[in-house]
Amino acid sequence: MWWGGRGQSFNVTPQKEEPEMGLSGPKSVQGSGMPEPRSHQLGSCLASGCLPGEQILAWAPGVRKGLEPELPGTLICSNLRVTFQPCGWQRSEETPLSMNGLSRVQLLRPGSLLKFIPEEILIHGQDFRLLRVGFEAGGLEPQAFQVTMAIVQARAQNSQAQQYAGITLSKAGQSSGSRKPPIPLLETSEDWEIERKKQGARGWRVSTVNERFDVATSLPRYFWVPNRTLDSEVRRAFGHFHQSRGPRLSWHHPGGSDLLRCGGFYTASDPNKDDIRVVESMFQAGHSDIVLVDTMDELPSLADVQLAHLRLRALCLPDSSVAEDKWLSALDGTRWLDYVRSCLRKASDISVLVTSRVRSVVLQERGDRDFNGLLSSLVQLLSAPEARTLLGFQSLVQREWVAAGHPFLTRLGGTGASEEAPVFLLFLDCVWQLLQQSPAEFEFSEFFLLALHDSVRVPDTLTFLRDTPWERGKQSGQFNTYTQVYTAGYSQPPAGNSVNPQLSVWDWDLRYSKEQILQFHNLGYDPEHCPDSWLPRQQPSFMVPGPPSSVWLFSRGALTPLNQLCPWRDSPSLLAVSSRWLPRPAISSESLADQEWGLPSHWGACPLPPGLLLPGYLGPQIRLWRRCYLRGRPEVQMGLSAPTISGLQAELAHLQELLRKWTPRISPEDHSKKRNPNTIMSQSR
């Protein structure tokens, strides 16, 4: 458990012989220079090392309950986290917490005062876990009181300070020298240029207009704009969009289509004719067919997502009061799975739009920082096999979420604002659904998704601890010196500013062992689906040109022609729409695919593009992510396959032992005799 409402944990089904993935917990960064604990027992518990700057506040021996067998260990409270460390490995859990003492129950929140010595403590986690620790008798109760109060006080003191912990830990982790990030962090124009060439986006260039964040602090320093659009035109055009988040390239399909994203039109602005021309040329991106997607149509609001997540968490906690026979109906009542279904359905529709014709598809959301990133990421996962690789998926999240300015800290409740909504966690659930439906298509495993899910609450990097690239760069000291304007290929970046010295969430080897990282890989991944075997970028023959000068609005599952692209009055669109193009309703992803690849006839027939996934989202096709949401209920985890061969062998041995224990031992001569069930059960004990 990490302080500040941002906690790390991992999926667990504890087994003493060989802990499952995450039971050992992330390994700690070594070399903190922390003084040795006074207790030999505590010292052995912290043998793996402490985080830089970590100080132990209190500890108490205890037994973790709710497991079979119960695990003895030590409950430790530090200034950064609460850890239960059994028998040589460490476990991290989450707040807030409730208290059980004798026959009394007391709910504690930051600033509360404990009025009795507890015999048991229950720590409820935002990561859907419940840590239940019973304290030993025989004079150790004062330690139980001390560690409990230390947890409450540390939680209160770190509610604000936690957001600055990441930079401290990250700088300490870099004391040994510069560390190359495992994936490009997209903090330099070179990173963006390499990614542009990788995608084959020849009609686009890297713009440096926002290099000093004077266009928008929520945008990255660099982004892609059409080749023929000047930076001065970009600056003016972006001023006519909400939060100055104008249209820019999100992803270039190898067949020729472009996926763009932007904020909502700032209708109070008064653009001139030249500004409208620039806006429409950026939307068009060299294509004759433009589809403007109303992102929020048929998707939940931020408030809906937050309410659904709170209901889901309350339902999945081990102490939920919902009766077992009403649990499934209560799950439907949370609406969480409905929202997952809506996101997958819309992403499927958009992937059809992108892959069926050579066109420009523009995702438009008022803020451009939440569901635009979710849909753009899902579309790339459905359409591009390279996005389903381990490195490709990490690069996707870095580009569409971190660099694009998703407000992680606000959405995950780190600022105390009322705009909390776990949109990124909703996205990870959607990805898990795709992984379950097409396991051979993904190189990464469910345990990688769990690690990423829990990493949003780890305060040792700045990746998820800030709302904007500007805040992240400012806190890291990236902008302490003057940044010279340079263009890739013509001048070198200024010395000392080309690489962000901070650690990122992708530095898995600093928090996880090699054995754990190996479990990030999907054993069922089919190498035949690797990017090298996909459609060559030089042969986009499966796509056909769209109709001339056509502008469409995709909303409520239908394509409707637009008379003008921009909403400003007395400013007619420069892109005329022919009256012969009529609305074409689409009530499902399949029907939309039929229309896109079958109509109109003069566009020609087109086969399903290689590598495209069309997910199922009807009824039982959308499932509950049990390893994530029911991790606090070990009994529910039984029956879920282990991630490794050794884990499967251990599960098989366990099942065989149970089968041997509960199967009656019947001699051959007894087979012909009618046995008394009571006799059988008595012999099996």
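the 2nd protein, sequnce then structure:
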Amino acid sequence: MFLAQLVSLEEKKGPLDNRVLDVPEATPVPYAIFQFISAADGVSAYRVSGETEGKIRISPDGWLYLEEPLEWSPGKTHTLTIEALSADDEPIDGPYSVILHVTDVNNNPPVFTQSQYSGSIREHSPAGVPFLQVSAIDKDDANTPNAVLSYSIESQFPNPTGQLFFSINPNNGEISTTEEGAAFLRARNVLGLTYSRGETRGSAEVLKKKFDEFCTPKNELPIENNPFFTCVQRAETRRFNAVEDPDYTLIVRVEDLGGGAPNSLSSTAYINIAITPNLWVNPGQIRIKENLVHEYPKIITSVRSNDPNARYRLVQKEREIPFPFTINVDGEIFVTEALDREQKDMYILVVLAEDKDGVELESPMEIQVKVEDENDNEPVCVHAESVFEVQENEKVGKLAHRIIRRTINEHLFYCLMFQSPTNPADGMFHIDGTRGKIQVAKHNFRRKDVPEYQLKIGVTNGGECSVIIRIIDINNEIPIFEKNDYGIYSVPELAEVGTTLLNIKATDADDPGTGSSKVEYHITSGDPDKLFSIEVDDATGEGRVYIAQPLDYEVQSTYQLQIDARNPEPLIEGVQYNESSSAVVVIQLVDVDEPPVFSVDILNVNVPENVTVGTVLLTAEAKDPEEKKIKFRLEGDEHGWLEVDPDSGELKTKAEMDREVVEQLKVRIIAYETEDQKQEVEKEVSIQLLDVNDNFPKLQKTQGFMCVKQLTPLVLTAVDGDAEPNGEPFTFSLNMVRKSPNWEITPVDGTSAKLILKKRPTTDQTYNIPINIKDNAGMGVTHKFEGKKDFLIKSPATDCCINDSSHDVCPDNQSAC
């Protein structure tokens, strides 16, 4: 029996009590559920009753098992009652309530709601927009992965490019086109038929009318017997029926367990897809010649909705008046009058296709109408006065700017009428007579002599344009120091960071306020550790040399700095910086008697609380900058556990330490000079005592009594001086020679437990109960918990307990006792 479950049977055993157990549906039988073991003496059999449905049994040794598999349904449970019986079939333990929860197993594959789906999508539809949705159901538990479904496309027919034209949302089964499909899919329209307002697609009557209009000469053969007509009718009917004649067929799969699992269950379905024509196509930009002589209104383009009964409406995007465009019922767009490009050169028409209730049948379409120029205006300057810039060293032939707006209808000529001023020479600029380009004709511009030139340009038919050309300064001057040697400056080595040492200054003859005249200062030698820095005052151009990092006379006493003045803009070709742009200064440090310095900033140490007396915890290291002799002393040791060697700085224990007294010690080690000013410095030392398991849990109270009337459990509480992980939670147990059927101890929390007396004693007694208490690390001892006889005397008046010493009667509320 239960051979298939031998591996896990040991995990299915426990005391007889109230339980809730999970049992999977459709298990092989016999199937062992749980073995109940009663603590009562004399048990010879067990009995189960309740919602067994004739499928649930219990063996004489307490094994609850299935004779037949159970079936799952939402919320399905079996409520049972189990008792332990004596040899006489009398209950001696129980009854206990056992609830079996039937759990779902993945034994139902998902099933599509339809075996075949059909849908259609218009050509040119954007990718990623769903046009069809498939769905499936799974009879397994919806709250488990057994019913989590995932959809995928198994295959596509045909597949001309080797890439899928369709995609499916794995979570909800929505079908849409891929980017490849949106670009590739086209509708079949071999016959080229289109439908007008009121005509039903594929209708026999509509097809007969179109056939008569198309076919000449007329044939006396009845149209129903004309094989060409019946072919057309069949093709048009099938074109709009995805089931009979699909353009593409997909096989889609649905899987449970979220898809992709090796043991998932699945099913498939077919999807037939027809690609329908999309007549709602933007005709592109429309070009109209301005001032066009024509009979108006003039048709310029047409649009067609996919719905033959659509009603068209035309609006202007810019909402400007007038709006010289209209649209008729057939989607033909007209311009109603001649257009003027100088008034408006571009119109954006918004075409709407709506049903009779004004509901949009298509997305709004924007059509651009561009008005082309006609040579009907005199040429004009772009600006009344144009302003351009030229550098001082600009090369001959450099384009300054093109100043006249030109169109395909213009034939303009330009000339330079005059230049002001004319120094260093007239004709500093030249203009291209046909293109209107102003170019540099001569060089040697000097901004400080002529900051700008004014030009007058003549244009065909007597027009004129004014041009101002400003000369931009170039970096052809170098900064020059007011003096190249700033001498010697002394400063104490302990001067604060930010202290100003001196001010320096260099000037530049380039145009003020430009990058060519701005001066920056750089320390280029003598300061490898960047102890000094220079701050520039933009208003005066002066540089403030200051201390950027702490100084130390013992490291270096003298610094000879070289400072270079530079421009942020590069110098022009042929100009270089020289010694005039450099200066030197000597910084001398003044020695100051400094206190000793510890080698580290933080002194922290972690040690076990039971470390051996005399152990060295750390060695404090310090030195005097002037190399004077130093010693060490200790302060702040309130417990007298530590001492420091005055010469070596070794900090060691001189007495036993106890973490239960204090967890962290903070003391100070002082390093001090033994001569001259005897300067000193102190460093705080933090010592963290690490707990060791040197305490065991102890009962707070070792005596108590219990009223025989109500048998209220006694709550026992223990304490332990150790910290985690050597302290709580505690484990309580009865340490009797043989198991007692009448006493039981159960946990309350990490530090307490309940002592329970199961049956009333027949006489007043005093019990000595051995209770073993262990801490979280497993360390503990057995304690004697005593109930003295004088605490357990029964009051004949109240049938409760009284204290024999005080003779105070306990009330019925046992907690008051």
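The longest strand covers residues 91-103. DSSP finds three helices and 57 strands in the chain.
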